[in-house]
Amino acid sequence: MSGVQKTVLICAASVALVLGAIIHKVTRPVPIDRNALQNAGIFLFDSPRSIPSVKLQAASGQPWTTDALKGQWDMLFFGYTFCPDICPTTLAELRQLSEQLPAETRNQLQVTLVSVDPNRDTPEQLTTYLDYFNADYAGATGESAELAKLAKALSIAYIEPDTSNENYLVDHSGQVVLVNPAGEYVGFIRPPLKNDQLVNWLPRIMTP
User: Which helix (H) or strand (E) covers residue 37, if one does?
Assistant: First the structure.
């Protein structure tokens, strides 16, 4: 090989390296800005947190365990069907958000209402209530000890009510919990939901 040929090969290799570096820089995902996320009401943990196993009852009447949170992204909202304000508002906002998301993102996402009012929220009541918002929404509730175990793991606060009052209310947190396909607690969305920003951020967060 002549000196000219060697020089040409070296130059070509150098150009290929430079082009490769440029392409990598242009195509690699832009790091998520935590400040921008928080402005959108999204708070992600540095590391995913495990969720303990619990046994509840699904709105379908079948057993519901935390295994149901695996295989897709999940949004969990703790509330109850007789809630007068934040629950219907949040579920309606989640419905609107789902309608605005790209189909690929929407198909990877499951919304679940975890009822903290098992005294009134039977499977039938949960199903009727959730169908009003979105027939694909899931629901679950169960014994107080199991609900408290799950709520504590997901940083949800609620106060068990005095059920002797027929029209009792249940005080509870309003954030929407984010769970990844591995069934891990990765963060939460603070209300009120900012759908105009969430519709842009969620596809990025949910991209592997």
Answer: helix 34-39
Residues with Cβ < 8 Å from 71, sequence gap 6 or more?
181
Residues with Cβ within 8 Å of residue 129, at least 6 apart in sequence: 81, 113, 121, 139
Enumerate residues 6+ apart whose C-beta is below 8 A from 49: 153, 184, 185, 186
* Local confidence pLDDT in tens for the 208 residues of the chain: 565 555 545 545 554 454 444 444 444 455 678 899 999 999 999 999 999 999 999 999 999 999 999 999 999 999 999 999 999 999 999 999 999 999 999 999 999 999 999 999 999 999 999 999 999 999 999 999 999 999 999 999 999 999 999 899 999 999 999 999 999 999 999 999 999 999 999 999 998 7
For 109-140, write each residue's pLDDT tens digit.
999 999 999 999 999 999 999 999 999 999 99
Q: Which of 73, 106, 111, 74 is nearest to 91 (CA)?
A: 111
Vertex 165, ends 163 and 168: CA angle to 5°?
75
3-state helix, strand, coil in the chain (%, to 5): 40, 20, 35
DSSP secondary structure string, 99-165? HHS-HHHHTTEEEEEEES-TTT--HHHHHHHHHHH-TT-EEEE--HHHHHHHHHHTT--B----TTS
